[in-house]
Design a protein that fits this description.
Number of strands: 10
CATH topology: Rossmann fold
Number of domains: 1
Order of helices and strands: EHEHEEEEHEHEHEHEH
CATH architecture: 3-Layer(aba) Sandwich
Distance between the termini: 11 Å
CATH superfamily: Nucleoside phosphorylase domain
Largest sheet: 5 strands, mixed, barrel
Helix content: 25-40%
Structural class: alpha/beta
Number of helices: 7
Length: about 210
Amino acid sequence: MILLVCTAVEAEAEAIRAGAFRSAGAGSPRIAAVGVGPAAAAAGTARLLALAEVAGRPFQAVIGAGIAGGFPGRAEIGATVLATRTIAADLGAETPDGFLPIERLGFGTSVHESDADLFKRLTAALPDALAGDILTLATVTGTAATAAELARRHPAARAEAMEGYGVATAARAAGLPFLELRTISNLIGPRDRSSWRLPDALAALTAVGAALAD
């Protein structure tokens, strides 16, 4: 399988490459940083898919990967999360009665289901990974109130990040299987950079890279 792995930033891509190249073979994945946020991620992923198609070496599947915040009690620091679904959690409208997802507005879907075959293969390759929804937000959570509201609205969510829905949208537009995976660097809630454990999350990404190469 010719696999494209998209991260937000180069540090995440390098962490995955460190594991993938250690186990490198003929089917080693292409790993690329495509930008921060859903719009940049969608545009960057679509560009890479189109270039590969024109070159006659099309990709066969896409994975969105990187670090993320974990919901307390659902995904702890250093954990790896495999998405059952990637959800654009802030794609919709505010109303006096609460948030309405885009489905309720009649303008499409906020949910991309993970490809079943990719999910099965990665579950086997990463047996300690947690399964659950991963949320995409253009503005990441920085307060206890927002964290609690997201946890209430998304009881199956384990993590949040900024790019998954964008990568998924590009992959699905190209007719390709997609799955998002994340390693946890911090817990979702009041923003506190001093509590982040980036080395732990990046080390977990390196382990993910080895699994992807295999």
